[in-house]
Design brief:
The structure holds two protein chains of two kinds.
Chain A (H helix, E strand, L loop, with lengths): L2 E4 L4 E4 L4 E3 L1 E4 L5 E7 L5 E7 L5 E4 L2 E4 L9 E3 L8 E8 L9 E2 L3 E6 L1
Parallel strand pairs in A: 2-12
Antiparallel strand pairs in A: 1-4, 3-9, 5-6, 5-10, 7-8, 8-9, 10-11, 10-12
Chain B lengths: L4 E3 L2 E4 L5 E6 L6 E8 L3 E9 L2 E4 L8 E7 L2 E6 L8 E8 L9 E2 L3 E5 L1
Parallel strand pairs in B: 2-11
Antiparallel strand pairs in B: 1-3, 3-8, 4-5, 4-9, 5-6, 7-8, 9-10, 9-11
Classes of the chains: A mainly beta, B mainly beta.
């Protein structure tokens, strides 16, 4: 079945450092891909998405490119801030879309130090 | 739009008691999902509904858990009897069935503590 694998956390960075959180997937065909962010004490929020190969999703300085050849959707940000400290989840929606169900990765905790 | 609304935000109950968690999805959304989040297991899908009909409840841990969606604007997740291992944050999310590409909107969650 469809699945998502993320790099393990926690990831600790200094402010203004470059961020990469790896995400790879296994799925039939061309799923839609998402990144969600969860701030402490809150629910998950959609950060960005890409619905077809080579699409780049972007929001709040974060970017991720849908790479079909490597089945990846890595999250990047050029200069992180303390306020980016959160848990980040990669997710996919399969082409058979099983009633709209999203498949989530295990989450990667990011901690940004001043 | 007020978003997905969950109540209560926090619930502390004694083992053996019945617990009911509530969710109001975004108006117009026709898919609703219940998740449980713990440090040990991460984010687990418990059950989801399309057009108020349960589609997949394979994630419900055992018969003590039940969920209903009597109409398009309300859903409940009930645990009876509750146990300490049920302590977790429970999230409700909604989406458009035909537009899974839009992703989900999550509620703020209910933090359940069973003592």
């Amino acid at each position: 079945g469809d699945s998502v694998t993320q790099m393990e956390g926690p990831v600790t960075l200094s402010e203004e450092a470059f961020l990469t959180i790896n995400c790879t997937y296994t799925a039939t065909g061309y799923p839609s891909l998402f990144w969600y962010v969860q701030y402490p004490g809150e629910g998950l929020q959609l950060l960005l998405k890409a619905t077809k190969a080579d699409d780049k999703g972007s929001n709040k300085g974060f970017e991720a490119t849908y790479r079909k050849e490597t089945t990846s959707f890595h999250l990047e940000k050029g200069s992180v801030q303390v306020s980016d400290s959160a848990v980040y989840f990669c997710a996919l929606s399969g082409i058979y879309n099983q009633g709209g169900k999203l498949i989530f990765g295990q989450g990667t905790e990011l901690s940004v130090k001043p | 739009d007020a978003g997905v609304i969950q109540s209560p935000r926090h619930e502390v109950t004694e083992m053996g008691q019945e617990v009911t968690l509530r969710c109001k999805p975004i108006s117009g959304h026709n898919s609703l999902f219940w998740y449980r989040q713990t440090m040990m297991r991460g984010l687990e899908l418990l059950i989801y509904f399309n057009n108020n009909v349960p589609i997949d409840d394979s994630g419900m841990p055992e018969d003590r858990f039940s969920a209903k969606m009597p109409n398009a604007s309300f859903s409940t997740l009930k645990i009876q009897p509750s146990e300490p291992r049920d302590s977790a944050v429970y999230f409700c999310a909604s989406s458009l069935l035909s537009g899974a590409d839009y992703g989900y909107t999550f509620g703020s969650g209910t933090r359940l503590t069973v003592v």
